[in-house]
Design a protein that fits this description.
130 residues, mainly beta, Thrombin, subunit H, 6-stranded antiparallel barrel, two-stranded antiparallel ribbon, globular, disordered N terminus
């Protein structure tokens, strides 16, 4: 399944497909279709979530494009995803970006802001005095 390209726009020229939310949630990650030597099940947490996936911490080794199953431990629901990016390493864990195979706004059980929600620029408040 091809990935949708990131559209141009926004202040720095790149706009994400969905709003990211910094949120720590307990999840379980398990490999899908991995060899017995490379397979693992790991209880971990999210760092950031969105409708299309999450940024998670993993001590297990993964490769870009690898398929995984995420389980939301609070709801016991599962979602298949693929490794979209592999980030920095710290204390034996790696930041891994995972992308759902299908957008799943209900998986995290939080309300995401509507796509047209824009935070207005801060403008000086007029006091009526000159």
């Amino acid at each position: 399944m091809p990935t949708e390209p990131i559209s141009k726009g926004g202040p720095d020229g790149i706009r994400r497909r969905s709003q990211r939310v910094i949120l720590t949630l307990a999840i379980t990650v398990r490999t899908l279709d991995a060899s017995s030597q490379a397979s693992f099940t790991e209880e971990t947490q999210t760092l950031v979530v969105n409708v299309h996936g999450a940024l998670v911490l993993l001590s297990g080794r993964v490769t870009k494009g690898q398929r995984l199953i995420l389980t939301n431990r609070a709801t016991k629901t599962e979602q298949e995803c693929r490794v979209a990016s592999i980030g920095s390493h710290s204390d034996g864990k790696t930041q891994v970006g995972v992308e759902f195979l299908q957008p799943s706004p209900d998986f995290w059980r939080i309300s995401f802001p509507p796509s047209d929600w824009v935070v207005p620029d801060a403008s000086p408040v007029s006091t009526g005095k000159s």
